[in-house]
Design a protein that fits this description.
Distance between the termini of chain A: 19 Å
Strand content of chain B: 15-25%
Strand order of the largest sheet of chain A: 8-7-6-5-4-3-10-9
Strand order of the largest sheet of chain B: 10-9-8-7-6-3-12-11
Helix content of chain A: 25-40%
Largest sheet of chain A: 8 strands, parallel
Structural class of chain B: alpha/beta
Oligomer: heterodimer
Strand content of chain A: 5-15%
Helix content of chain B: 40-55%
Number of strands of chain B: 17
Largest interface: A-B, 49 and 57 residues
CATH topology of chain A: TIM Barrel
Number of domains of chain B: 3
CATH superfamily of chain A: Dihydropteroate synthase-like
Radius of gyration of chain A: 19 Å
Shape of chain A: globular
Shape of chain B: globular
Largest sheet of chain B: 8 strands, parallel
CATH architecture of chain A: Alpha-Beta Barrel
Number of domains of chain A: 1
CATH class of chain A: Alpha Beta
CATH class of the largest domain in chain B: Alpha Beta
Number of helices of chain A: 11
Chain lengths: 322, 451
C-alpha cells in the first residue's frame, strides 16, 4: 500500500553566514565556516536541503575561569592561557570555531580594558587558523568600550562578535559595520524580541547575512523546552518566508549546561544519580543534541567528550533519508 | 480532516443532561473536536449519530495501553506535530531492554534494579516504565526462561521481543501479567502473531520493511481482529528513523490516514550507552510513542527521562509548586527566610542553590500563578502586597524567631513598601539564584551546617 509521503512545501530557507576570512579575502584564517542554508525542518532531507553541517565552537575563557574544577581534567594544562587553550581545542579536539569569552573586563574578575582584550584577541588569532567568535563580558557599558577595540584588532578576519541585545546593540553593530564582522543578536527566549532586534540591527545597515540569532538556551531540565519551541517557531517562520527570522542560530550550551547541578554535582551529593562524569558529560551533550533537533547551527561547548557525542549524532543525522 | 465543534454539536442530543461530566452538549462537542473527549461519554447519543461521528471523533492516533493496573503505560493519542501548537499528551514510554542471552542472575539483578529505580530531581520522580526481554540469538526455550526470570523480579509492564510466534506464546504465559506488548508481527509471522495477540488481549507491534509495507501489514493485522497496534517502520539508522517517525505523525494527524493511526516504537542501536541516550533523546522529541533502549544506569537514564518530562509539559501551563513554606536542611528558629515565586523552575533553582549554601533555611514560594520573578513582578503578582499576605498566611512569624527575609535582587524596588506593609526587615539578595551560596556565606555563615 503506497502511503504517499507527506512533504511540506516551504517558500524560503535559512540564510547562510560565513565566518572567518582566508588570506585572499584579507584575513589570516586557514579555513572558513559556513552555516545555515537549510530549506527544511532539521534533518528532513526528504523534503529539503541541509547544505552545511552544524559547527562546534569550543569556549575559551581569556583568563583562568571560575568554572567547575572537573573541567580541569581536559583543560588543566592550559587553564588561564587562552592561546594555548584555543590551540589545544583545535589540534586535539578538532574545533570548527573558537569562541573567546572575555571574562576579564568584568570588574569582579580583573577589570581589564580594551587594550588587553584586543591583545588577547590577536594572540588567539595568531594561535589558531579557524574562525573566531568573541563574546564580551555582558556588562553593557564595559562591552561598549571593549568590543570596538576587539573589532579593530580583528579587522579583516570576519569575526563573529557578541553580544547585541535589544537595549544595547548600536555600538557593537557600528563596530561590525566598520570592521566588517558578524554579530550575535541575543533575545530572551522571545520570538518577537528576536525579530525586533534583527530589524533594528538591519536598519543600521548591517546585512542580514551578517547576523546570528542567540535565542537564549536553557539547559536540559532547566527550561530547555521553552527555547526548543521558540527555535522550532523561528525555523517555521523562516521557512514560511519571514526574512527577519531567517538567520542561523547559535546555542551557548557550555555556559548553561554547567550551571545545572546535574552537570557538575559530585556523586556523593546525589548518590541516586549514579556516576558524576557519565551524568555530566551526557547533560552537556544532550542539551546540545536536543537543540540540534530544534534548529541550532553553532554549538558553543566546554567538554570535549560531550562534543564527541554531538559530532557522532550530527554524522548520523546528516545521512540522507530521502 | 476532523469535524468542527459545531458540526459535532448538531449530532448530539442537545439536552445538556451533564451526564458526560461537562456542563453542556456544546462543551462536549468542543472537547470532541479538539480530541480531548470520546463520544462514549455521551450515554444518549443515537446510533445514527455515532456512525456519523465515529470516524471523525476517533482520535487520529489510537491510545494503546501496555500492562494493567497501577503500572499501566498509555501511549499514542497525540494531536499535534509541534508542541507549541497545543501540547504533547502521552509521554514516550521508556522500555529497558534485557537480552535473553544474559545469565540468570544478571537478568534478575537488572530487572530488580529497573523495577526499583526512582530518579528524583527538582521534586519530580522519574521511572523507566517498562522492561523488555529480547530473544536475539537465544533459543526459544531460553527466551521463555528469561521472560520468566524478569517477570519474577519486576512488576512493570513487559515488552516481549521475538519473531517466533510459538516462543512468544509461551513467553506471554511465562510473563504472567496482562497486556504484555508483543514485538512482534512481520510479513512472515503476522497471522500467527495476530491470532496470539487477539486471544491473549495483548497489544502487538507490527514491523514493516518501510512505510508502505507497514501500512499494508497494519491493515491486515487490524483485519484479523488486532485492536491495539504499535507501529515499527523497520528503520534503524537514526536519520531514517527520524524521517519515518515524522511521516507517521504527519500522515495520521494531518491526513487522518487510518492504517497508520497508531502509536509508534523506536529502538536505539548505538553501542555506547552515552550515544544510545542521545539517540533516545531524539526519538522522544521527534514523535516516538515509546522507545526501547539498553540503558540500566541512573546516570544514563536521568537525562533521557528529564528530557521526556520537559518536552511533554504543556507549553501553555507553567508548572507550579505549592505555595507553602519549605524547610531546607536542619532548620531552627534562627534560619534565614528566602522569598521567591511558585514557578517550579524558579523555585527549584532557588532550592538547589540554598541547599548548596549549606545554611539550613526556609523558602517561601509566593503564589504567582507559576510565573518567574520578573514576569510576576511586571504583572503585579509578585508585589509587596502579595508577599506580605503570603508571610501572614504561612504564619512565618511563628515558624522563625526573627523578622528578616531575603528578597530576590531583581525586585529590590519592593523593599521599602514590603518592610512597611509586613513589618519584616528586607535583605536584598542576589539577582540570580547562582549568587545565593556566596550571599549566604557572607550573611549567614555563622548558621552554616557542620559537614
Amino acid at each position: 500500500m503506497p502511503v504517499g509521503i507527506q512533504k511540506e512545501r516551504y517558500s524560503s530557507k535559512v540564510g547562510t553566514v560565513t565566518l572567518g576570512a582566508l588570506p585572499e579575502s584579507g584575513g589570516t584564517r586557514t579555513r572558513t565556516v559556513t552555516v545555515g542554508g537549510d530549506s527544511t525542518m532539521p534533518f528532513l532531507h526528504f523534503e529539503g536541503e541541509m547544505p552545511n553541517r552544524a559547527a562546534v565552537a569550543f569556549e575559551v575563557p581569556d583568563i583562568a575561569p571560575p568554572w567547575d574544577e572537573s573541567l580541569k581534567r581536559f583543560w588543566g594544562d592550559v587553564w588561564g592561557d587562552p592561546a594555548a587553550w584555543a590551540r589545544k581545542a583545535v589540534e586535539e579536539h578538532g574545533a570548527d570555531l573558537i569562541c573567546l569569552k572575555l571574562l576579564s573586563p568584568d570588574p569582579d574578575l580583573g577589570g581589564t580594558g580594551p587594550e588587553q582584550c584586543a591583545e588577547v584577541t590577536r594572540a588567539v588569532l595568531g594561535a589558531v587558523g579557524v574562525p573566531l567568535i568573541v563574546i564580551g563580558c555582558g556588562i553593557a557599558d564595559i562591552d561598549n568600550v571593549v568590543m570596538p577595540a576587539v573589532a579593530e584588532a580583528g579587522a579583516g578576519e570576519n569575526l563573529l562578535l557578541g553580544t547585541a541585545t535589544q537595549d544595547n546593540y548600536k555600538t557593537l553593530t557600528a563596530a561590525c559595520m566598520v570592521h566588517k564582522h558578524n554579530i550575535v543578536a541575543l533575545s530572551p527566549i522571545d520570538i518577537n524580541i528576536c525579530k525586533q532586534l534583527n530589524i533594528l540591527i538591519n536598519e543600521m545597515n548591517l546585512p542580514l547575512e551578517r547576523i546570528i540569532i542567540d535565542p537564549t538556551v536553557g539547559a536540559l531540565g532547566y527550561g530547555i523546552e521553552y527555547t526548543y519551541s521558540i527555535m522550532e517557531r523561528i525555523r517555521l517562520g523562516t521557512l514560511q518566508g519571514d526574512r527577519m527570522l531567517s538567520m542561523p542560530v547559535i546555542c551557548n550550551i557550555g555556559y548553561e549546561a554547567w550551571r545545572a547541578k546535574e552537570t557538575k554535582a559530585p556523586a556523593e551529593d546525589f548518590p541516586g544519580w549514579g556516576d558524576a562524569i557519565e551524568r555530566g558529560t551526557l547533560w552537556e551533550a544532550m542539551t546540545a543534541t536536543l537543540f540540534l533537533q530544534a534548529g541550532g547551527h553553532i554549538f558553543v561547548m566546554r567538554n570535549p567528550e560531550a562534543v564527541g557525542l554531538l559530532r557522532g549524532h550530527i554524522d548520523q543525522l546528516m545521512v540522507s533519508n530521502r | 480532516m476532523g469535524l468542527s465543534g459545531l458540526d459535532i454539536f448538531k449530532q448530539l442530543p442537545k439536552t445538556n443532561c451533564k451526564e458526560c461530566g461537562l456542563p453542556t452538549c456544546l462543551a462536549l462537542a468542543m472537547a470532541l473536536a479538539s480530541g480531548k473527549a470520546s463520544l462514549e461519554k455521551c450515554p444518549h447519543v443515537s446510533d445514527a449519530a455515532k456512525a456519523a461521528l465515529g470516524a471523525a471523533a476517533a482520535p487520529p492516533i489510537k491510545l494503546v495501553a501496555i500492562g494493567a493496573g497501577e503500572a499501566k503505560v498509555e501511549i499514542g493519542d497525540e494531536t499535534v506535530i509541534y508542541r507549541h501548537d497545543k501540547t504533547f499528551l502521552h509521554p514516550t514510554g521508556v522500555a529497558v531492554d534485557l537480552p535473553a542471552t544474559l545469565p540468570d542472575d544478571e537478568l534478575a539483578a537488572r530487572a530488580a534494579k529497573i523495577d526499583a529505580m526512582v530518579l528524583e530531581r527538582v521534586g519530580l520522580h522519574y521511572r523507566p516504565d517498562m522492561l523488555a526481554v529480547s530473544q536475539r540469538s537465544a533459543s526459544a526455550q531460553r527466551f521463555v526462561e528469561a521472560v520468566g526470570i524478569v517477570a519474577r523480579s519486576s512488576r512493570r509492564p513487559m515488552v516481549l521481543i521475538s519473531s517466533d510466534a510459538e516462543a512468544m506464546k509461551a513467553a506471554a504465559a511465562a510473563a504472567g501479567r496482562p497486556r504484555c506488548l508483543l514485538a512482534g508481527a512481520d510479513k512472515n509471522n503476522y497471522e500467527a502473531m495476530a491470532a496470539l495477540a487477539t486471544a491473549a488481549n495483548c497489544p502487538l507491534v507490527v514491523k514493516g520493511d518501510d512505510l508502505d509495507s507497514l501500512a499494508d501489514l497494519a491493515q491486515r493485522a487490524a483485519g484479523l481482529g488486532v485492536k491495539d497496534i504499535v507501529l515499527d517502520s523497520g528503520a534503524r539508522q537514526t536519520s531514517r528513523v527520524l524521517a519515518d517517525l515524522t511521516q507517521m505523525r504527519r500522515l495520521s494527524i494531518t491526513r487522518r490516514f487510518r492504517p497508520l493511526g497508531y502509536p509508534t516504537v523506536a529502538f536505539t542501536t548505538e553501542q555506547s550507552p552515552r550515544a544510545a541516550a542521545v539517540q533516545a533523546g531524539l526519538y522522544i522529541g521527534k514523535y516516538a510513542s515509546m522507545v526501547v533502549l539498553p540503558l540500566t544506569e541512573p546516570h544514563h537514564l536521568l537525562p533521557v527521562l528529564a528530557w521526556r518530562g520537559n518536552v511533554y509539559t504543556d507549553p501553555q501551563k507553567p508548572i507550579q509548586v505549592e505555595a507553602k513554606v519549605n524547610a531546607v536542611g536542619a532548620v531552627n528558629p534562627e534560619s534565614p527566610v528566602y522569598v521567591t515565586t511558585n514557578f517550579s523552575l524558579t523555585y527549584f533553582t532557588v532550592e538547589g542553590e540554598v541547599t548548596a549554601s549549606k545554611v539550613p533555611s526556609y523558602i517561601l514560594p509566593v503564589d504567582t500563578e507559576g510565573t518567574s520573578v520578573l514576569t510576576a513582578w511586571a504583572s503585579g503578582k509578585f508585589s509587596a502586597e502579595s508577599i506580605a499576605a503570603a508571610l501572614k498566611k504561612s504564619n512565618m512569624e511563628e515558624i522563625v524567631g526573627h523578622k528578616t527575609l531575603v528578597l530576590p535582587g531583581f525586585v529590590a524596588v519592593l523593599s521599602g513598601k514590603l518592610q512597611e506593609l509586613s513589618g519584616w526587615k528586607v535583605l536584598v539578595g542576589p539577582r540570580e539564584a547562582a549568587g545565593i551560596p556566596a550571599f549566604a556565606k557572607s550573611r549567614f555563615g555563622n548558621l552554616a551546617a557542620d559537614d
